[in-house]
Amino acid sequence: MAPPAVAAGQGGQQPQQGGGGFGKSITGIIRMAVFWYFASKFFSPKRAPTDPSGAPSPLLSNLFQQGQPLDMWLYLSEHEKFNDFSSDRDLVWHETNLPYASWRPGSTRTLALKYDPSEALKRNGSLYAHVFFAQSGYSPDPTDPEYQPQAAFGRTHAVVKYLPKSRADKRRSLLGSSPDSTEDPVASKVAGDTQNDSEDDGPVEWVSYLKPNITINLVADFTKYSKNGIPSNIAPYLNVDPITENYYPTVFFNEFWLLRDKLIPMNETVTELLLNLEVGPISMTKWQLFMQIDQSFQIHRSYGSMVDGEGDELKRVFLEGNPYLLGVTMAVSLLHSVFDFFAFKNDIQFWNKNKSMEGLSAKSVVVSFISQLIVFLYLLDNDTSWMILGSSGIGCIIEFWKIGKAMHIEIDRTGRIPMLRFRDRESYAQNKTKEYDDIAMKYLSYVLFLLVAGSSVYSLMYERHRSWYSWILSSLTSCVYMFGFIMMCPQLFINYKLKSVAHMPWRQMTYKFLNTIIDDLFAFVIKMPTLHRLSVFRDDIIFLIYLYQKWAYPVDKKRVNEFGFGGEDDTAVASTEVDAAAKEEEKKTN
């Protein structure tokens, strides 16, 4: 496909750039697309169905042969219906001797065209591309004496796309005016802010965007279809001649690689447009794959599992990403998902079987729940898709369940409104664990308070928010992301004071550590803010300290493990069984 903006002599080559993000839903989307495509190929009718009289249904064949030379005319008109073939003003491109369904040199042609938009087009007008093909030597004009209906075909496609205008940014400076805020609130609309304000702002205003790329593909399809057995995904695009009952080559306007940010907004300031035109063949498999992936995107958007613009980001990975880096990213993403699953499984298993809080920080569990709840409320305030909300909500429920395992939760009905009351477990309160946990949280809370206060004040002074509630949520969420590692420090302090790590859920932490290593890889190969990149490496420091403590503090057989058992208990049980077996053997001998 032609790139968004190239010179005439570049042949439509896309520049290769490294980097690019990779969404987690790409695996499911591609799998669904490939499944649909092969299902339509293998489960289509194997033989032509018969009509009521018993005669086989006639087969539809392509009217053109592979390699047959074609001539092409491309017209740009502001009218959807076109029949002025003699208009030199509307004719923008003419090519001759294009080999049909052939990939030899010369089968793909490109052109960089400078187009002057009319005043009507600048004012939300329409523009259509009318492309016509005919056998070499024939005319596409029906009024021409040499016109042959079976020798010419064409298709019309809209070059202008209408999208809703970005609404004025509802966010404002809560202090009246930011010290460095001089930008227009309309121009500062961010792409991630999907707040629906249609009810407040009245009817939606639509803006026209022109597509800078017009890529015309002729599908290489020579399949013989039965008249009553055309696959459902092919039928809407099949142009059948009513006289011969055969079909013309399918004309496909390829916009698969045309990203939304490449569209040109039309207004009075636009005086000249650079259009990149391309015509060439496309295989049947590639055409079907493009359509199925686009349909998959639409299904995911309708289910709420994909937001607008995410499909473009996935395509951008293939457009701008290095293929080797892309393969490594896919493999690493799969490993990341596997480790996430095992870490989640072992975390649930650990807390489900845990009988003692000795050596474990109960306050860290409570703070972890509060952090998860803040993230959930932030996502809810920003109208995130229901799948992400559901995942975050389940995480909140699990964190609250872990509080019930770490502490006693009781319902206090003494007042008018029942309240939850939390009480420490005996295994936590009756030893040094609670004392060390209180000390660690006391000093860390001072540090955390200063960081939260500083970050919140900065956000209040230099950033805009929709409301005070939104400012509180965004400030707390930023602190959770930036300073969340501080919540892991109390456990380090408890380990240091107890000189033991036997109580730690090492299996779960191992999977989390492997995921941190994978995050380190992404931090090097993927573009991301510096603060987020630093947050990845700060977790490495915490885990390395944990590993050092595991080496420095050997396992104490006298200390109970996460299941409430100690190493000496296992030794005592084993020795008792050995003594019993020896006595039984002695009785048999006597």
Automatic annotation (TrEMBL):
Region feature Disordered, mapped onto this chain: 1-22, 171-203
The keyword Membrane is annotated on this UniProt entry: yes
Alphabetic keyword roster: Membrane, Transmembrane, Transmembrane helix
Record's bilayer topology term: Multi-pass membrane protein
InterPro entries named among the record's database cross-references: CLPTM1 (IPR008429)
GO cellular component: endomembrane system; membrane
Compartment list: Membrane
Main subcellular location: membrane
Regions of compositional bias (Gly residues) in chain numbering: 9-22
Residue ranges of the TM segments: 324-344, 364-380, 386-403, 443-462, 468-494
Family: Belongs to the CLPTM1 family.
Protein name stated in the entry: Cleft lip and palate transmembrane protein
Organism (species): Lupinus albus (White lupine)
